[in-house]
Amino acid sequence: MERRPFIAAYLYGETTVTPEDAKILDRINWAFGLCVDGKCSGAHWKGIGQLKTLKEANPHLMTILSIGGWGAGGYSDAVLTPQGREKFAQSCIELMLEYDFDGVDLDWEYPCCDDAGIDARPEDKINFTKMMWLLRAKMDALTLLTNRKYHLSMAVGCGSVRYAHIMELEELGTFLDEINLMSYDMRQGTSEITGHHTNLFNNPADTRVASAKYAIDLFVEHGVPIEKLVIGAAFYGRGWTGVEAGEHGTGLHAKSAARAYREWNKYDKLTDPAWQKENGFARHWDDAAKAPYLYNGDIFISYDDPESVSHKIKYVMERGMKGLMYWEYSGDKTGAMLRAMDEARKNK
């Protein structure tokens, strides 16, 4: 069953969205609110005034408050008790209303998991569900007063199957509006074997099972309705240096683990012909994985481009998923990626 999916951009830092792009986008996820002393805070924000202007350019544009991000802690302590959950949930609602957001997206990375150096405990799994239920109840109560629908979602990683086991996915899937699958960084700092970090499918020759499709299937198996899932695209690259000799570069050992180096972290830099030529890169296409990569005999870089994101949008429509989101808007100043996704959903 095909459907018109939404396209959502995460907006981070002081990046400014153009009115032209705002007319294409269906949603903007404002990143990030933080948990400070048990409450949601936006005291560090700059440039948030543009959201009102963008909504004027596109009256159908929704803005979502995303809370958390990698390395952002405080959540385990905040949701440990009923009183703490009430305090945190209420502060989320108050911040949402203060800035006229259309909903909240919780990006706690991750309950029960201290990989990012944050506080974590086994009770996070059930406490996370309780807190999200509380947010849902508060939003529904608001809807009765305002006659306005408020959206509630969460973001979760796809680089490890354990991320599907640290949340009560089946129950969350009954009341969340969306679950944003971060189907990027699927190869990162622990991987010294070159490969794709944001591929749609798995190449059968790849010994490591990691793909957007694999994550989607895993979450569906855990009880999440397919129509509530959102796929992720990366507007940046991850790469390896000191790659051993090989014909194309995939599946090879490297001296460095996968990293998002500063000079590789923007789509428009990676696709600049002058930069590619200067650094000896050739662009390759893995048709099985539906993913591009750059290789110059020593450096391998995995990324998304207009061709790969077009395949992602088509796949979303084929499976009846909710939409596609990407990290992060500033990664493509050319607008080529956003236009490619928009064209793909028009030419279904």
Tell me what portion of residues adopts beta-strand conformation: 15-25%
> SSE order in H/E notation?
EHEEHEHHEHEHEHEEHHEEEHEH
Taking pLDDT < 50 over at least 5 consecutive residues as the criterion, the unreliable ranges are none
Number of separate strands: 13
Termini gap? 11 Å
Tell me the major beta sheet: 8 strands, parallel, barrel
Q: Provide mean pLDDT, rounded.
A: 93
Radius of gyration: 20 Å
Helix content: 25-40%
**Overall body shape:** globular
Structural class: alpha/beta
Explain the overall architecture.
An eight-stranded parallel beta barrel has the order 1-2-4-5-6-7-8-13, surrounded by five helices. The chain has a four-stranded antiparallel sheet with strand order 9-12-11-10, with no helix packed on it. The N and C termini lie close together (11 Å). It is an alpha/beta fold and 348 residues long. The chain contains eleven helices and 13 strands.
Spell out the key features of this protein.
348 residues, alpha/beta, single chain, four-stranded antiparallel beta sheet, 32% helix
Secondary structure layout plus pairing:
Elements: E1 6-12, H1 19-24, E2 27-36, E3 39-41, H2 50-57, E4 62-68, H3 75-78, H4 82-98, E5 103-107, H5 124-146, E6 151-157, H6 169-175, E7 178-182, H7 212-221, E8 229-234, E9 238-240, H8 267-270, H9 273-278, E10 282-286, E11 291-295, E12 300-302, H10 306-319, E13 323-327, H11 336-346
Parallel strand pairs: 1-2, 1-13, 2-4, 4-5, 5-6, 6-7, 7-8, 8-13
Antiparallel strand pairs: 2-3, 9-12, 10-11, 11-12
Helix pairs in contact: 4-5, 10-11
